[in-house]
């Protein structure tokens, strides 16, 4: 059995999810008891194999999922649209349900294909491979999910709207409220690759064309899950970037979006500075500010193409940044942990390499960053000019 969910934000754990049906039905119960499967009657003889149980779980859980989506589309959204008097504003409806109708259509078509597979694991895998592009619609839904939660919270504060949602729940005899059903697409898209992995683990022959199809399905749905997580992260960073722009004082430079995506942000103690400084690392620049209430006062910024990193050999938590042409104007930062220092120095080195005007061999970039991740740094200073000399005078060999 799975441990009970902790109720945390579903995006916080990367590819992990809190779906309550993450284990295929019919898997062995505790203490060696017989499998507890609601489908045992139809598969009593002969005993189904592990792979057959996983395939059955994929099909039947998709059936349940499609039914849940239908209840949202018809039991909630349809009634709102058909109401004589508008219960919600159009923008509330859009934020609350997103593109749930597209998700429902995709799930219904997928279920129809799965039903025609006759429990063949290879045919099931093909269903996912042929629809790899269709699952992109989940990106829009997942990006909108925070807006959906906010819209539902707003609706539940309105007595008339809250009463309407409770009545819909009672009519459909749902044990859980609408919010739990709106979360299901987020959970489901992050679960497909896990179920397909269970097929591959117990596939009879770990070679041949059939097995390759299953592996391709796993790769397809894993890429979908990672892509959605990455788009979610970029979406959140873009919103945060707009917030920083609106809170930044004394800034006379261009819009922060010209510096690319926000990579990291953090607050550090700086040597010989009384108050802490807030640092924002973008793809193309390091922004240095001072916090004042809810605002940030601009202090300095260094283009990543001119950024220099100096790692302290005396203090394991300290590192310095500076413009490589103004080395005396250093900012000596003290991280709160060794992991925080490692993450910041690693990304700074990566951006120094990516923003240098010269074309740096990809193998040289990988060798430097791999050395940073797995070995103590050999060079205490990283700057465009120093790195350029290191690979022009002594070309790095393939590791």
From TrEMBL:
Which intervals of the chain are annotated as region Disordered? 1-29
List the InterPro entries hit by this protein, alphabetically.
Answer: DBL_dom_sf, DH_dom, PH-like_dom_sf, PH_domain, PH_PLEKHG1_G2_G3, SOS1_NGEF_PH
Q: Which molecular-function annotations from GO does this UniProt entry contain?
A: guanyl-nucleotide exchange factor activity; small GTPase binding
Q: Which GO terms describe its cellular component?
A: cytosol
One GO-annotated biological process of the protein: regulation of establishment of cell polarity
- Residue ranges of the DH domain? 50-231
In this chain the PH domain maps to: 255-353
Q: Which PROSITE patterns does the protein's record reference?
A: DH_2, PH_DOMAIN
Alphabetical keyword list: Phosphoprotein
Membrane-spanning intervals of the chain: none
What is the protein's name according to its record?
Answer: PKHG3 protein
Q: Which gene encodes it?
A: Plekhg3
